[in-house]
Amino acid sequence: MREAITSTNDFVVKFANVNGSGSASANELFARCVLRMGVPVASRNIFPSNIQGLPTWYEVRVSGEGWLGRRGGVDLMVAMNPQTWDRDIAEIDTGGYLFYDSTKPLTTQKTREDITLLGVPLTQLSNTLEGTIPRERQLLKNVIYLGALSALLGFEPKVVEELIAAQFKGKDKLIGLNMKAVELGHSYATKNLAGKCRLSVKRSDKVGNRIFIGGNDAAGLGAVYGGATVCAWYPITPSTSLAEAFTAHCKKLRVDPASKENKFAIVQAEDEIAAIGIAIGAGWNGARSFTATSGPGISLMQEFFGLAYFAEIPAVVFDIQRGGPSTGMPTRTQQSDLLLAAYASHGDTKHVLLFPEDPRESFEFAAESFDLAERLQTPIFVMMDLDIGMNDWLCEPLTWDDSRAYDRGKIMTRDMLDAGKDFGRYLDVDGDAIPYRTLPGVHPTRGAYFTRGTSRDRYARYSEEGAVYVDNMQRLVRKFETAKAMVPKPVRRDAKAKARYGVIYYGSTAPAMNEALAALEARGLHLDTLRVRAFPFSDDVVDFINAHDQVFLVEQNRDAQLQKLIVNECAIDPARFISILHYDGTPITARFITGAIAERMEVTRKEAAE
Amino acid sequence: MTYIAKPKFHHPALKNNALGFTRRDYEGRISTLCAGCGHDSISAALIEACFELSIEPHRVAKLSGIGCSSKTPDYFLGQSHGFNSVHGRMPSVLTGANLANRDLIYLGVSGDGDSASIGLGQFAHCVRRGVNMVYICENNGVYGLTKGQFSATADKGSRSKTAVNSDSPIDLVSLALILGATFVARSFSGDKTQLVPLLKAAIAHQGSAVIDVVSPCVQFNNSPASTKSYDFVREHNEAVNRIDFIAPREEIRVDYAPGTVETVTQHDGSTIRLSKIAADYNPRDRVAAMTYLQSRHAAGEVVTGLLYLEDDSEDLHAHLNTVKTPLNRLDEKELCPGSKALDAINAGYR
Questions:
Q1: In 3D, which of A218, A266, A272 has the Cα closest to residue A245?
Q2: Would B152 disulfide with which of A533, B87, B116, B212, CB 3.0-4.6 Å?
Q3: CB spacing of B93 vs A277 below 8 angstroms
Q4: Residues 6+ away with beta carbon under 8 Å from A119
Q5: Parallel, antiparallel, or unpaired: how do β-strands A41-46 and A55-63 relate?
Q6: What is the C-alpha to C-alpha distance for residues A182 and A178, in angstroms, rounded to an integer?
Q7: Whether B350 and A280 lie within 8 Å, measured CB to CB
Q8: Residue A343 domain flag
Q9: pLDDT at A21 over 90
Q10: Chain A neighbors of B56, CB-CB under 8 A
Q11: Which residue of A has its CA nearest to B25?
Q12: CB < 8 Å to A399, chain B
């Protein structure tokens, strides 16, 4: 028997459950208990495309240091699923722990010599809960293991109590029943397993006023703050919860108190094509509108993206990326829709993409995307992914500046038309290539025009003249240049010492990258970093690449899509890049990035020394 | 097809409507469709209907898909915004536009290829949602712009220059009835007397109004064998009623048409007077309307007129309980909950 792992505030607990068994809320309570004790956690759902009966996992990384990426490895496995028993046991790190239901003795199941067994007779204990039916006892088994773990890891009892009271607020009977289940587990573990677990959570102050929120939830709230009034969507994992969050927030925040009427309109469309059609129709008519979808939806919406690009209609699209191609890995994460979105639709097109790094930035970019869409009169893609969207992340509280006014872009009003302003829908009046638009119904005799996906002149009159067409296409290129200065700038962080290597990364790679940088620095490997936040690329991206001998580009896709986009759009020699690609569907880890970068840099260092 | 600019002058005695507009104020650009195209007659009927209703032209939004029919919104109501969208997807764009501003009148102009083939799904779903609109299908049974292929509304056995259609037809009127449209009618582009009052009643209707207008294609589908030709429709037309539409502010006119007369009051107070021609036709019975359609179709007749009307219809905005102010007019004061509310929201995530 190896030495048991001993750690305070730095370990990984993985729950292996069967989906549909009610484990999710107990597991989330576990993570929130740790947070309430002031210790940062990073939690991730690993779930199947299924409703009941298949394996699902919930991973909680407890990190006193505050590292929020996935770490890899498991110190304590809570093995509740007989189907996956063998692979779950195999995954535990040497010296780790196995928590299991010991109602029946372990006879046929495999265990390991190098781990510590923590058996609690969950089924037997749940049967002692009087006045419950089997279905309830099944649910309460999850709460019993929460109680047992709270004893093993040393949670403060009042933290568990408070959270259960909050969760079942107003339902005293349920609070009582759940607390009874917690106590059952807690007292069993205290009596029978004292001293066996050397992992512990100790109160700290590392959480501060941070919040624990999922990206879809935050983006849905951002859409409320950003003034979205029309949402059309079609259910697809992992984006569904964004539209649902928007709905829930609207019901709380957007119902007129006097009339009880809604200051929003949400339509569950018949498919993704109709969803984007509704968003574009609403955008054309002056409402802030959006759709939320994932890769397959983006594929279906292509024709409409071309229309919105060419006819210059604002709309916001949230792409919660998942594993592709085709149906791919619908419940796993990837950053693999970049090229699809950047050049969506036939003909020459280019679209604005935003890459939020976490739920907080998803909130901010969601709100900002509506300003950008109306200012630029074009679709804006907020490129999230399953890891950000569907997992709760610890992040800074959301903020809003009350003096902020919505930028409704260039809209020619009735007064402007009355004042005799010349209205040409596709006329570049200000030299920024952004024309003025009018909204339907604006004026009895001026400002009406015919919107179309066919070629037209500056006054929106149908034209198949080559020169007229080229004039318009050139203006669209100039408009994309204008967009460069409006989209969020990349964030650059320089190493303490002068660095020959740079790293470019984006989106949900951020927490793993932050941790990897610290680990690399500890090994004396210095790198400057640039977190790209939008396409079109700022000149800072080119400057950063030019300032380094070589640049690692860390992505969660197979084909190095951001790298290709940079090579393509900024005319950079591909040899300048070293791709670091992780695309098995799990979130990228600091271990993976550190390993890949260190290997490459140390080879170079040795070569230099020789 | 002509390139001659439309002359601006008009006869000094041209009639004005209640708003002081003449018919000319409801016209659009000159049509580029073929001479004799049924679609141009429908545009003319729309101009007539809007003029007679004294609608402010700019309070109308015209939306269409792709095809000959979808080009026509450029040829009427030149002071209205128009949107020629993508093939078969006008219904979703119109739905979005309607959600953004409930105060405008929405005309959805489509064709049989647009509505019954590529856009059948969108047609079905916008009708079942009760979007407040007039959905006009200019139905000629062929793809005109790509030179005469059969569409999904073409009858089995229809002939083109090179082929015979062996597929069963889709009847949009029957579909609209099944899908819950609250105003369903069919007419014929060559029958302005019937079409204009139908359009007026449809515009006044609150909810999804579907009008299938048989509109012969003079180039590709006006042959004796076609069931969408001028001659066929004239010979086989079975009109269930003649209607006279009366807007709330107008005096009620005396109806001289023979047979029984029934007055239907719509949601906005306007009335439709139905002069019955077909005996025992009840336009408020959805099931009877379907049966009637099927039986007349089996007898080789094209039933026209107002086939179904729901008096107290509700539209999508009623279902969604949206505010009376158009959503596109709400500003940050109305829409943004502000920083204080956000502090409370943050607290809920700790």
A1: A218
A2: B116
A3: yes
A4: A99, A100, A101, A102, A106
A5: antiparallel
A6: 6
A7: no
A8: yes
A9: no
A10: 444
A11: A445
A12: 339, 342
Residue (of B239, B344, B213) closest to B301 by Cα position: B239
Chain B residues lying within 8 Å of A413, measured CB to CB: none
**Are residues B349 and A445, on separate chains, in Cβ contact within 8 Å?**
no
- Three-state secondary-structure class, residue B209: strand
Q: Are residues A280 and A341 in the same domain?
A: yes
Please list the residues that pair with A255 across neighbouring strands. A262
The chain B residue lying nearest A228, using CA atoms, is: B335
pLDDT in tens, A408-437: 999 999 999 999 999 999 999 999 999 999
Helix A134-153 × helix A157-167 angle, to 10°: 150
Q: What is the DSSP letter of B164?
A: B
pTM over 0.90, yes/no:
yes
CB distance B335–A254 less than 8 Å? yes
Q: How far apart are CA B265 and CA A561, in angstroms?
A: 61
Euclidean distance between CA atoms B227 and B156, whole angstroms: 10
Are both A188 and A164 inside the same structural domain? Answer: yes
Residue A552 main-chain phi, psi, to 5 deg: -75, 135
A444 plus A531 within the same structural domain: no
CA separation, residue A151 to residues A154, A320, A537, B203 (Å): 5, 38, 51, 70
A260/B339 Cβ within 8 A: no
Contacts of A231 in chain B (CB under 8 A): none
Residue at A190: amino acid letter: T
Q: Which domain holds residue A349?
A: 213-395
Alpha-carbon gap, residue A132 to A126, rounded angstroms? 9
What's the rounded Cα separation, in Å, for the pair A277 and A206? 46
* pLDDT, tens digit (0-9, with 9 covering 90-100), for A234-268: 999 999 999 999 999 999 999 999 999 999 999 99
| Dist. CA B31–CA A383, nearest whole Å | 44
Asked if the C-beta of B100 comes within 8 angstroms of chain A's C-beta atoms, the answer is: yes
Percentage of chain A with pLDDT > 90?
Answer: 93
Q: Class assignment of domain B23-347?
A: alpha beta
Closest C-alpha to A5, from A73, A55, A66: A73
A377 in the same domain as A416? no
CB atoms B83 and A281 under 8 Å: yes
- Determine the 3-state secondary structure of A381 from DSSP: strand
Tell me the C-alpha distance between A141 and A182, whole Å. 9
ipTM, two decimals: 0.95
Alpha helix segments (H runs only) across A254-317: 272-284, 295-300, 302-311
Number of neighbours of residue A540 by Cβ within 10 angstroms: 14
- Say yes or no for a CB contact (<8 Å) between B349 and A211: yes
Which residue of A211, A284, A289, A404 to mutate against B (max B Cβ within 10 Å)?
A284
Residue B2 pLDDT exceeds 60: no
> Which CATH number characterizes residue A53's domain?
3.40.920.10
Question: Which of A287, A304, A453 is nearest residue B100 as measured by Cβ atoms?
Answer: A287
Residue pair A1/A114 in contact by the 8 Å Cβ criterion: yes
CA distances, A130 to each of A140, A280, B184 (Å): 12, 57, 62
Amino acid at A568: N
Region of poorest pLDDT, from A385-389, B68-72, B150-154: B150-154
The answer for residues whose C-beta is within 8 angstroms of residue A42's C-beta and 6 or more apart is: A60, A61, A63, A67, A68, A69, A70, A393, A394, A511
**A413 contacts B45 by C-beta, under 8 angstroms:** no
Q: Are residues A255 and A188 in the same domain?
A: no
Read off the pLDDT of each residue in A41-57 and give the average, rounded to a whole number.
88
Selected for mutation to probe chain B from A278, A304, A394, A413 (highest B CB count within 10 Å) is A278
Q: Which of A260, A263, A400 sits opposite B338 (nearest CB)?
A: A400
**Which CATH number characterizes residue A590's domain?**
3.40.50.920
Encode pLDDT of A369-382 as tens digits: 999 999 999 999 99
When divided into structural domains, chain A yields a total of 4
- Is residue B278 classed as helix, strand or coil in its secondary structure? coil
